[in-house]
Amino acid sequence: MRAQVMIFDVDGTLYQTEKVAVPAFRSAFDQLIEKGIYQGDIPSQEHIISCFGMTIPELWETLLPNASMDVRDQANELVAQAEIRLMEQGKGELYPGVKETLQQLHSQGVKLYTASNGEKRYVETVAETTGIAPLFTKLFTAGEYKTEKKEQLVRLVLEHAGTDQAVMVGDRRSDITAGKVNHLFTVGCDFGFAGQNELVEADRIINNFPDLLSKVKEGQDNQR
After folding, report:
1. Which tens digit of pLDDT belongs to each residue from 74-96?
2. N or C: which terminus of the chain has fewer CB atoms within 10 Å of its end residue's CB?
């Protein structure tokens, strides 16, 4: 049996998010300070990166715990604008081998989907500016579908694909959990933002993206 559908997280899995997100968050906090609506410190790079993979509400609850919804909305918009501007300037990058691996899967007839906790415009801009948009059947994001947990978004992907069998690929525990809840084969990316032991429940773990092809085949051969 060969994988017919593969579902990918974006940040830390396909995309080196920190290259645009860290400067975008710093820019947003600078602007909030200039406007006089934030008086605290600008979060460290480590703190910002620790939030990657969270839903938008979770992220701002973490970075702006005492702020009003209005301030959080302003901050989110400032970050989004800065990220898109940086991506359009060519600042963002896929991980090595991502595009070539996705092209190979696409050429084999595998349906490719995203399941990202990010916003629709962000994920679309990632896909468009890196040239991988044509390879995907559909880009699913929590921002568009208002899902609270990744497993809900993955379920929507499966419904769209018309299957209950797929491979889930991601770099955070929430990605692996989303796959497990939906009874999928899971691959953890140990080159993204996962903390120690965060991927222990994955069926397979890869240290670079092109290894995905052999690990999925190996896993499925063992399931026969």
Report:
1. 999 999 999 999 999 999 999 99
2. C
- Among 88, 120, 149, the domain-final residue is 88
* Rounded CA separation 159/180 (Å): 16
- Based on the domain organization, do 24 and 36 belong to the same domain? yes
* pLDDT surpassing 90 at residue 14: yes
Q: How far apart are CA 101 and CA 69, in angstroms?
A: 40
Report DSSP state, residue 10: -
Listed residue (27, 32, 131, 39) closest to 81, CA to CA:
27
Full residue range of the structural domain in which residue 41 is found: 18-88
Q: Is the dihedral of CA 180, 181, 182, 188 positive or negative?
A: negative
Among 132, 131, 174, smallest CA distance to 154 is for: 174
Indicate the residue type of 150.
Answer: K
pTM value? 0.92
Statement to judge: residues 149 and 40 lie in one domain: no
